[in-house]
# Entry
Amino acid sequence: MVTFRSHPIVHAAFVALLLSPSAVSAQATLDQLMSAPFATNIAAAATGERLAWTLNERGLRNVWVAEGPRFTARRLTAYLIDDAQELNAVQLSPDGSRVVYTRGGDYGSNFDDALPVNPTGAPFPNKTEIWSVPFAGGAPVSLGEGEDPVISPRGDVVVFTRARQLWSAPLDGAKPAVRLFDQRGTASDPQFSPDGGRIAFVSGRGDHAFVGVYTNAQTPIQYLAPSTNRDWAPRWAPDGTSIVFGRRAGAGGPPPRNSDIQPAPWSIWVADVATGEATKRWASDKTLEGSVPSTDGGINLHWAAGDRIAFLSYQDGWPHLYSMTARGSENPMLLTPGNHMAEHIALSNDGRHLYYSGNLGITPGDIDRRHVVRVPVDRATPEVLTPGTGVEWMPTPLGSGRVAAIGGTAQRVPSPFVLDAAAGAPASANTPRIAIGESQIPAEFLAAKLVTPKTVIYTASDGVKVHGQLFEPPPGGAARKAAVLYVHGGPPRQMLLGWHYGDYYWNAYAMNQYLASRGFVVLSINYRLGIGYGHDFHRPPHAGVAGASEYLDVKAAGEWLRAQPNVDPKRIGIYGGSYGGYLTALALGRNSDLFATGVDIHGIHDMTADVGSRFGGTAWRYERSAARIDSLARLAWRSSPVSAVNTWRSPVLFIHADDDRNVRFAQTVDLIQRLRVRNVDLEEITIVDDTHHFMQHANQKRVNAAIAAYLEKKLRP
# Structure
C-alpha cells in the first residue's frame, strides 16, 4: 500500500505574482527554458573582493568576474561558439590580478576525463589546456596541456598535472611549462606549503599510495610514513611544519563476503615534515557508517585556526563536520548536529569558520533544498545564513571576510550573490544580498512560466519513505492527465525544490518544468541510494548489483501516480539518464503493466558486463568457490534490465552518445539487439562524438526535444 503526504512550497514575496492564473502561461517553450544561464565554478581571491565564475549561456561557456563594492558582472573571456569545451578549475591569484582555468575535457566523467571532446566533428579537436588571463581583461594565455591547476601562495607560478607528473609554469605564461620531477607514481592533488616553498602531493602506486613532499630539483622527494596503505588528501598546517592526511587500506585482502557495499574504514594521520614520521590522530569505526564518505569532497580535510583539524564523517548517520586538536588527545567534536548533510565545504580565510551547503532550516521542505550555513571550527553552533524557500550553494569566502555563493528559487534562475555584511561584521540570517549577474538572464526567460514543485513523501512496499517533487501542470485540459516519472542519475544525488547546482540536473529541472507546461503531471523522485536523507538511505542493503532494492521506490512512485485522481492510470511514462536510465529500463522490463512507455538515456543495462568486478569476484579468485561466484553473478544478472527482456512490452526511446565516459555505449548497443529479437517497439538516437553530459548545447537541445516529443507521441490520447 502506498501512502503519502504533500504540501505546497511557498515562495516568499513572489507568490502572488508567480502563481496567479494571470501570471502563469499555459506553456513555456523549450527554447525559453533552455535559455537559463548556468553559473558554477565560483572562486575568490585571498585578498580584497574579487570574484570569478563560469557561465554557460546556450553552450557559450565563459569566465565572468566581479569586484566589490558594486560587484558588477563582466565577461572576461570571449568563447562565442557552441564548441562543447568545458571550463573548470577556476581560481584567482592571491592578489586577484589573474584568473586561471582549464578548458576542454569532460570532468564529470568516470574515465578519460582529460581527453578532447569533439562533437562538432573538427578534424583536429581542441586540447585540454590550462589558461591564464588578467582580471582587468586581455587575451588568455595558454600554460600548456594539463589539468588540476593550483596557484602558488606567492602568486608567481601555477603547478598542474600532466602525463602522471607535476609541471610548473609562470602565472603569466611568460615561459613554457617545465616538469618538476619524474617519480614512479601518478602525481595528483598538489598542495603548496603556506610560504609557497614546497609542494605536497599524492603519489598513486596502484594498490597503494604515498604522500610526497617536493622542495626543489636538488632535494630528494620526501615520502611521509610510507606503507602498504593508500594515503591521500594532504593538507598543510598554517606554520608549514606538519601535514595532515587521510589513510585507508591498500588493495587486496580476502574477497568481499557478499555483493553489498563493504565497510571502508579510514584514519587521520599528522606527519612532521622535518622527519617524515607520522602519528595516527583518529580512526573511524570499521562499519559502513565509519567508511570514507562518498559525498562532495570526500573527507574534506582542513587545518583550521587554533591548531584544529576539521573533517567530514558519516559516523553518526549523516555527513557531518567534526573538528579536533591536531596534536592532543581530544576526541572529535561534532560541529553540525541534526538530521542534515554538509557539502560544498569551505574554510574561511582566517580559519575560524567553516561554510557549507546544507539541507538545514526551519522552512517546511528544507531537507530538499540547500542553504548557506556557517559554523565555528570549535563550537557546535551552525547558523543558516540564507533561510527561506530559495536554494543556495557553494559558499565562497572573500578576502574581505564576506561570503559569496550562488542561489535562486524554484522560479528565479540562480546566479552569484554576496552577503552584504558591514566591514568586519559577520553575516547573519538577516543579511541582505548583493545580486551579481542577473542581467545575464535573457528577457525571454519568464520566471512566471515555471510552476512551484510540491513535496511528496510516499512509502515503498518495504516501508522505506521516499521524497519526490511534484510538478503540476497549469489548470485546464483533461480531468485525467498523462503523467511522467523522472528518475535522476548518480545515484548519489538529490533533486531539489528548485534549480539544481549540477548542470546535468539543472537541465533535468528545466525538462520537468517543460513537461509540466505541456500538460503532464511530473513526479521527480529521490530514491534510496541518493544523498540528503542520511546514511541508511544512501547506503541501503541489497541495492544495485546486490538486488536493486531501489527499484521498489520507482515502482511505488508509479503506483502513487496511478492512484491520483488527476492522472490517467493507463498513461504513465518514465524517463531518466545514467543510473536513472538503468531504473527506467528496469521499470519497462519488469512493469510494462504500470509504465506505458519510457525514454532511457545512456542507462546501465547489464551489471555482469565487466567480468564480475561489480560483485567482487573473478574466476582467478579461487578463495571463493565457483558456486559462490555463480550465485553472485546470478544476483547481478537478476538486478540488470537485460534479465527482464522477456517481459518488456512498453515502447522505448534510447538516447546515447558514443563518446560516453561514464556508461559504455556498448550497454545500449547490447540491449537494443536483445529487444529487437523480442520485437519490442523501440526507437534510438545516437549522438556522435559527444559525451555523457552532452557538452554541445545543440545536442542537449536535440535530446530534450526528442524526450518531450516521444512522450507526447506515446502518452497523448
In short: Confidence is low (pLDDT under 50) at residues 1-26, 614-620. The radius of gyration is 25 Å. The first strand starts at residue 4 and ends at 8.
